[in-house]
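Task 17 of the worksheet. Students: predict the tertiary structure of the chain below and write it out as structure tokens. Keep your answer in the requested format; marks are given for formatting as well as content.
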Amino acid sequence: MAREKDADATVRGKQAHHPGTEAKGPTRAVVIVPVLTRHQRNDDETNRPRLMRSADARHDEAVGLARAINLDLVHTAVVTVNDPRPATLLGSGKVAEFAEIVKEGHAEVVVVDHPLTPVQQRNLEKELNAKVLDRTGLILEIFGERARTKEGTLQVELAHLNYQKGRLVRSWTHLERQRGGAGFLGGPGETQIESDRRQLQEKIIKLKQELETVRRTRDLHRAKRRKVPFPVVAIVGYTNAGKSTLFNRLTGADVLAQDMLFATLDPTLRRVRLPHGTPIILSDTVGFISDLPTHLIAAFRATLEEVVEADLVLHLRDISDPDTAAQAEDVERILADLGVDAGDAKRVIEVWNKIDRLDEGNRTRLLADGADASKAPPIAVSAVTGEGIDALKAIIETRMAGELEDMTVTIEPAQFGLVDWLYRNGDVVSRSDNDDGSATISLKATQSAREEIESRLRRKNNG
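Model answer:
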């Protein structure tokens, strides 16, 4: 039984017009969300059942993905599938029903929020008389539209080619033709599909070589950063968890932050000075998503190396989302694929964002439930209102530079160039000017700052 959700009134109004009678607008689309009753996802490593999302949450995410590439949704539906068909996934009755919906709505694209085999995709396109995108194809389309840098564009193109390589049978009528053999002997030659696969493989090899060049350039940039050893803090999380909004709040930058899936694709890095003067490099990364195509994980490994190389990882969760636990599980799985242990409390801080969307009762309950004696408690913040941001900065600085320590230093007249540095890199509690022209300063400084102060004083004295 399908639970249908109509698009808005303006879309319904457009259905009365036949394509071609008005200016070309957004591509009209139908979104289908199959829910397989016998389908139980297990963790690849532990073989334990994975958390499953509600049908409503899956529907909303599929709609969000479709709208991320400006598809005009004329119809959406959640469909329960008791017996997946090898040929079409959906039963013949449902396929016929959607074929009528596609025809009446003049839809050009049908999005199926589930992985489809090449045969299923080809058969559905024939039955529905429309282009069919499965979940993987849809995410690839979004990434293709979002990529801005050369590296991002190359990565998306590589993922597209790997995805297409197994789907050359789709909608192609010329693939069985044979080309004549070369040279004097002739012979049967190679089939068109073999030729196309060979050309795809050649493109893939070329793209990998270009990406390797980009990767080496990125490695050189990392090497330069290591010479000026600022710690790197990477923000990761499920798409639309608020990573870019938090990035802007922490850095004062103006990175695109919209209520849209995959609003940010290419990584952004900014230098940030924390409250007690500790400098860090903050990195905003692409959002993760459930069932992220393996082609994309492989292609974007160079970009995600920013996460692997990070000294500290902020795992940002949208705590107001009903499926936050399942989203966190997906993020942790991808982090594990990258070699980052999400349970490592020394390296990963769990940050609960959008706390402002919860009432006081739910907020108290969630924070109490999140308190686990075996790991550090999560940090509750609102990237929009700024609530909890100071506490988050303090924890980041403690992890990067050590706990605050009380110290007292005497600055000789010849060393007064250090005074300004002390005020910028510590909390000065008191200062007294002595008769001999020196100054005694009491301050709170991080362990890292204390070591730097002592080093600078020694250099001055030895000089």
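Marker's comment: The longest strand covers residues 72-81. Residues 192-227 form the longest helix (36 residues).
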